[in-house]
Amino acid sequence: MEINYTEEGRYYRAKKKVEEIRKFYEHLAVYLLCNPIVIAVNLLTSPGYLYFWYSLFGWGIAIVLHGLKAFGFSPLFNKEWEQRKVKEFMEKEEQAKKTWE
Predict the structure, then answer these.
(1) What span, in angstroms and rounded, lies between the C-alpha atoms of 35 and 56?
(2) pLDDT tens, position by position, for the chain (101 residues)?
(3) CA atoms within a 13 Å half-sphere pointing along the CA-CB vector of 11
(4) Are 68 and 74 in contact (CB under 8 A)?
(5) pTM (predicted TM-score)
(6) Distance separating the N- and C-terminal Cα atoms of the chain
(7) What single DSSP character describes residue 48?
């Protein structure tokens, strides 16, 4: 796979990375603003059953995964994995094309 080192290509990749980081910070801000409301509603309406932990932990896991992806620490589905899968699908398609000929 050929890498585009032109100024335009570098600008596009940098802009895309900044957008990913901005979206993560927006996601984090919503998490930090909404969960205190969930906690307050839980404690005011049914203090005997603390369900706000589900929101904190479930959404917290999503925040951590989003942050890992936004800052390039994606151990499972990274660029190398994407390139391998693209190559794999292209090879399968080529083999299927040969069987039809």
Answers:
(1) 7
(2) 455 578 888 899 899 999 999 999 999 999 999 999 999 999 999 999 999 999 999 999 999 999 998 988 876 667 777 888 888 988 888 888 777 76
(3) 3
(4) yes
(5) 0.69
(6) 27
(7) T
